[in-house]
């Protein structure tokens, strides 16, 4: 009798476990960076997110790094269609939520801590809500791709006057074209995959990217000069399908939100580390690196911002208010 009772209880327990397993949900987390958490900002963010969520809930997190599920545009589309639950992207965000493009206005953020203060405050919350309404994707946290800087193979750049006549590869994005025009350079939109050849053959004299990207892809070997002007601070958006988020119970939602905040900060830390290492490394390998003074940065800002803001306001229409809202947030955070 005891054996029968035990067997029945064991069977019930097994059935209960099976039912629980069937109900367990899986989050697919995708990004385009390498998987290595020690060198990759998105790789680090994904890894810590997975560890926290799996450690504190019954949810399973599957990581898909290095563009294994597609490029950034494809990833946000998958998230909107519910095929991939969590994605971490940068430039693709402004394509589906144009207001996010205000973050790319050149010389907007004077430092990373200032950008963090703005994005983690009221402005970042308001932008996240706006983009949720526009796209159905919830911004769980902001990470960091890093400040973009100019390099070239002709001469040292200290002020916009030094950019006159130089051809710079830019992303095929109008904002970057307007920025380089405003600074006096000649913008040349070229696909990323064609950049090394364009630099090697002299199709362009220079390019612009975060330090880590420049170093990790060997672009410093094709360029002699780097100017740490930090013209654009590129943010990462850690996004989740809101439909999926709402399917989670409140306890799971709380853990996912916490994990995302930690992941965003983890990505920022790895990005800061790779920038510091990259600056030292490119100099050790012969690149000349110049840090503009505050007065010189002001010259870059005065030359680039008006044209970009005018163009962006025309593109945003009613959403052009986000330009002023960002300026106000930066002013408040700087006080």
UniProtKB/TrEMBL annotation:
Principal location: periplasm
Coiled coil: none
A GO cellular-component term linked to this record: outer membrane-bounded periplasmic space
A GO biological process held by the record: transmembrane transport
Protein name, UniProt field: Tripartite ATP-independent transporter solute receptor, DctP family
Top-rank lineage group of the source organism: Bacteria
Residues spanning the signal sequence: 1-24
Protein family membership: Belongs to the bacterial solute-binding protein 7 family.
Keyword annotations of the record: Periplasm, Receptor, Signal, Transport
Source organism of the structure: Citreimonas salinaria
Pfam families: DctP (PF03480)
Compartment(s): Periplasm
